[in-house]
Design brief:
Elements (H helix, E strand, L loop, with lengths): L2 H7 L85 H10 L5 H7 L5 H13 L19 E4 L2 E4 L1 H5 L2 H9 L2 H10 L1 H11 L6 H13 L9 E4 L4 E3 L2 H4 L3 H7 L3 H21 L3
Antiparallel strand pairs: 1-2, 2-3, 3-4
Protein name: DUF3014 domain-containing protein
Keywords: Membrane, Transmembrane, Transmembrane helix
Pfam families: DUF3014 (PF11219)
């Protein structure tokens, strides 16, 4: 686990943060339930006419009947064409729109969230990362988050090397951001982008497989990561750090990466994942 691989692999254990979202605001004007009072116009007063003797009617001589006019038959009027409904505006899947929506869905400081999220290929990165994670693999070139600024640290004691607790603290701001996302908002907007996400997954995976099942498999991989006591012993083979305990070193790459966030951060991440998993299962493919 070299420092370079450390920075490249950051992201999959926070993959659920990448449930892409955009908030659609709609203003609906409902008609009022109250109807205006009807306007009543008073009837004019009727007076009795005076009775007078009838006058002799005047006699009019009949006149010649009016000539009959033949009306020309006009051409049939063609009906007006049916109005054409305009096509709906396409969903804005651009990176600025997606990132802005993620930022708005978080209760954390907007500048902090903006700094932690990458700027390019958010939907593509999300799909590739989830697909790899579901297959027990990492997607080092498709991380959704910028790497931490601090370096990975170890300390030596009794002739052995152990992960320094300061290394775990590097991930705490990312976990804080993860918890700042509203679960319902994430899943609602995931539904908005579902068709686009499914289409991108069909290009790299099984086109007949629903992406929801891939997402759940990815979450389960992280939830299956064992919790281990600290400190955790590691060693270096001159290329990367490895876990001294074979049971840990034999875990898949996403699980080993999650372990490196530390016990407290890992518990918080798992709690958030369980909440989101329950919502995905509850909503099914809708």
């Amino acid at each position: 686990m070299s420092e370079s691989s450390e920075k490249k692999s950051l992201g999959p254990h926070f993959i659920i943060v990448g449930i892409l979202l955009i908030v659609i605001l709609a203003v609906v004007f409902w008609p009022s339930d109250e109807e205006p009072e009807p306007v009543i116009t008073p009837e004019p007063e009727v007076t009795e006419p005076e009775v007078t003797a009838p006058e002799e009617p005047e006699v009019f001589e009949p006149t010649q009947p009016a000539p009959t006019v033949e009306l020309e038959e006009k051409d049939e009027v063609e009906p007006l064409p049916e109005p054409v409904e305009p096509d709906p505006e396409p969903l804005d899947t651009s990176d600025p729109a997606v990132k802005a929506s993620l930022i708005e869905s978080s209760s954390a400081d907007k500048e902090v969230v903006n700094r932690m999220l990458v700027n390019e290929g958010l939907i593509q990165r999300f799909v590739v990362s989830v697909a790899n994670l579901a297959n027990d693999e990492m997607a080092p070139n498709h991380q959704l988050l910028t790497p931490p600024e601090q370096n990975f640290r170890v300390y030596s004691q009794a002739g052995k090397q152990w992960i320094d607790a300061a290394s775990y603290k590097r991930y705490t701001p990312y976990v804080d951001m993860l918890e700042s996302f509203n679960n319902e908002a994430l899943l609602n907007i995931y539904g908005v982008y579902k068709d686009d996400i499914q289409a991108k997954y069909s290009e790299i995976g099984n086109p007949d497989q629903d992406f929801n099942s891939v997402l759940l498999d990815a979450i389960d991989q992280l939830l299956d990561t064992p919790e281990v006591p600290v400190p955790v012993e590691v060693y270096t083979d001159s290329v990367a750090y490895k876990y001294a305990d074979d049971r840990l070193e034999n875990l898949n790459e996403p699980q080993k990466q999650l372990l490196r966030t530390g016990p407290d951060n890992m518990r918080r991440i798992k709690a958030k994942l369980r909440e989101l998993k329950a919502l995905v299962e509850e909503r099914g493919s809708n």
